[in-house]
Amino acid sequence: MMAQYLALKAEAGDCLLFYRMGDFFELFFDDAKQAAQILDIALTSRGEHMGVPIPMCGVPVHSAEGYLARLIKAGCRVAIAEQVETPEEAKRRGGSKALVARDIVRFVTAGTLTEEALLEPRRANVLAAVCEVRGTCGIAACDISTGRMALEDCEPGRLGAALARLGATEIVAPDGWTACPLDGIPRPASTFTSDGGEARLKAVHGVSTLDGFGQFSRAMLAAAGGLIAYLDHVGRGKLPLLLPPVVLGQAAHLAMDEATRGSLEILVSSQGTRKGSLVEALDRCVTGAGARQLAEDLAAPLTDAGTIEARLDLVQWLYDDALLRGDLRAVLRAAPDVGRALGRIVAGRGSPRDLGQLRDGLAEARRIHDHLQHRQDRPALMDALLPVLAGHGALVDLFSRALVPSPPTERNQGGYIAEGYDHALDELRRISGDARRAIAALEAKYRDQTGIAALKVRHNGVLGYFIEVPAAKADPLMAPDSGFTHRQTMAGAVRFNAVALHAEASRIAEAGGHALAAEEAHFEELVGVAVKASQAIAATAAALARIDVAAALAERAAEGGWARPDVVEEACLDVKGGRHPVVEAALASKGERFVANDCRLLPQDRLWLVGGPNMGGKSTFLRQNALIVLLAQAGSFVPAEAARIGLVDRLFSRVGASDNLARGRSTFMVEMVETAAILAQATERSFVILDEVGRGTSTYDGLALAWAVVEAVHGVNKCRCLFATHYHELARLAESCEALSLHHVRAREWKGDLVLLHEVAEGPADRSYGLAVAKLAGVPAPVVARAKAVLERLEKGRAETGGLAAGLGDLPLFAAAAEARADLVDSLRDRLRGLDVDALSPREALDLLYELKREAGAEG
Ligand code: ADP
Prior knowledge:
Blueprint: H1 2-12, E1 16-21, E2 24-28, H2 29-39, E3 44-49, E4 52-60, H3 64-73, E5 78-83, H4 87-94, E6 102-108, E7 127-133, E8 136-143, E9 148-154, H5 159-166, E10 170-174, E11 185-187, H6 194-205, H7 218-234, E12 246-247, H8 258-264, H9 278-282, H10 288-299, H11 305-320, H12 322-334, H13 338-346, H14 352-372, H15 380-389, H16 393-402, H17 423-450, E13 456-460, E14 464-470, H18 475-478, E15 484-489, E16 493-498, H19 499-532, H20 534-560, E17 566-568, E18 573-578, H21 581-589, E19 597-601, E20 607-611, H22 618-633, E21 642-646, E22 651-655, H23 668-681, E23 687-691, H24 699-717, E24 720-724, H25 733-736, E25 740-750, E26 753-762, H26 770-776, H27 781-801, H28 814-833, H29 842-859
Parallel strand pairs: 1-5, 7-10, 9-12, 10-11, 17-21, 20-24, 20-25, 22-23, 23-24
Antiparallel strand pairs: 1-2, 2-4, 3-4, 5-6, 7-8, 8-9, 13-14, 14-16, 15-16, 18-19, 18-21, 25-26
The structure holds adenosine-5'-diphosphate.
């Protein structure tokens, strides 16, 4: 057995091997140790290997899913080795000692799940393959639980952002790709070729050319090749549902890097939970598929005004007609998750219940179609979705006739094919029904015959049908001519058989076996029908999800008093009465009110410096405007009275280092790396929010950096930007930067206490109120008093020298500084070139070194 185990383990590689033994999956050696620890189950041992006991642990097959889920969550991958023959078959093949043949039937990995129990209903589960072909990265991504597949390519530097948008749970990459910027699971590089990818895609979809699907680059095809080869590997040759790939263009989506996504808390909060995230504050979807679509929309907002308007039109239509919205949501709420049921069916893991879900979901789609088809005022997107909702009439009809109303998840008991669908099956069922009735009649007859009122005909899995009488009454039945044959003596009861009973029992068993086989055959047939129609069914599922999203956004807008944004070309961001949906909801739950604020960035006034006290609402203001842009471009109404938004190509959000302390990555380095990325990438169409950048270092350094960053954003990137800072020295930048203006969050000291008004007003902040905030936070009064004295001293000193930022206004811009540095380098180089080193005395050499150092130090 160990030889068989070790061979399978070699095949499983770095996956944990679930080795089927009877009713258990067993794990051995290091696998056992690892799994026992993660699952918190007992580690035992079995036999010996090379003189040492073999560690072992196991999980029951019937509850394996729960254990699998925990292992996958902990980052493991699992290979399932099943028995592929019965013990009888093994004996026939190789004699009484023969080992049952086992084979790995499937790999279970985070990105290739289809089981309802292992998937989160409201989250897509994305597997991505990445590779590089001649300097271009290709990405192939799919969610096999629904079959959606997308291809894209990008520059290597953008790979991280693209993967962050896709939110992949598992990534595979070619083995030996040393420049790979992330740790994917290595796969043979030979599977990542464009020719191979093209061939695999054609084979999957049974087409001779891919032209009908779109234009794919070589990098995309190579990634697709790697992806399909991996799916083939984990499914052991059985491919899951894959729909025709769609090409995602970089330009089609609002670009956001990982840091931005994290800081805006779009799909998960900074705590790593859905609670506290944008999607949680927004999601009113009534179906899992809708929630997944919404999350996808938020992760990848659009940049094309036409598509955004089409989505907004649909939301508007459902916003205006609350009755229609309510009707649609009621129908959708009852609809099962068609996409995921289909995913399981195509992957060969479907159940009768999944077929029932297709039937019910597609029937609901049809009802929505019928409900909407007479409406004259449908927006264009609805017109496009409508035909997709109908069109499964024949399938729904067939499945309705074939299946019982609520089919079971298990096939082995049968009973899911409806009466009247197959007369032969009905006949078999009638036979077993008759036989059961006959057995009931036999029971009465045997009672009469023996005079034992306590006699019973019973059934169990081992004996089948038998007659049972109390032990005290059993003697007469033991007589050879009694007509009964003894089978088993129990404590207090004795069991018998009889010829007529045996005959009826055989009838039941035979008919039952035939009936099961017949149901099995019908099941396969229905699965075949579903698989054949899988693309059309998936399209219907997607249409339902899109309608759910639009209705949910309309619902949210109505609930929160949100407005339809006006999406324009001009590079502006003009928000009236904007609010932060997450903070507003948090305040509302405490009975507090959110103070709405305007934001008016225009081409001639596109950079706002926002000052004011800590806790005054600066971060909230910055983020709410970034979220409003994101929501608008995802096709949603926005939490504001009105909003005019010039399309944004890239969105950046950065938080100064010390604000990030809680997340344990508060190095000043991270802050600067992220700032560098913005300065390198932001365009005139971008929107940037910078929150206390420069805060992670000493005051002078920080102020200097903040100063230079603002100048660069203003003069070089020329993007729209909100910059929150507590350095009021930066106010002086207003003198040199014409498109920059000063704002502050208002606060007032009232009777010695600080009152934060959370109102954004024009003009510079008068002071930082740091001591007042400290007092508010409960710093002891003597400490605050002492701080006040120190502050007075500091401010006096500063007044005498002209202030921290004295003279900064006259400082040449950084371009000039760079020029000066270049001059210095040139002059140093010239002097070194003209030097005859051999002609110098040691003393002269030393002096020269000092001189050069002085010169360099004076400028650098
Ligand atoms: P800052 O960045 O200025 O330190 P924050 O934006 O973090 O301040 O806000 C601090 C707290 O003030 C928030 O957690 C929230 O409870 C409250 N707050 C912020 N903005 C508003 C607002 N517009 N209306 C009401 N309360 C607000």
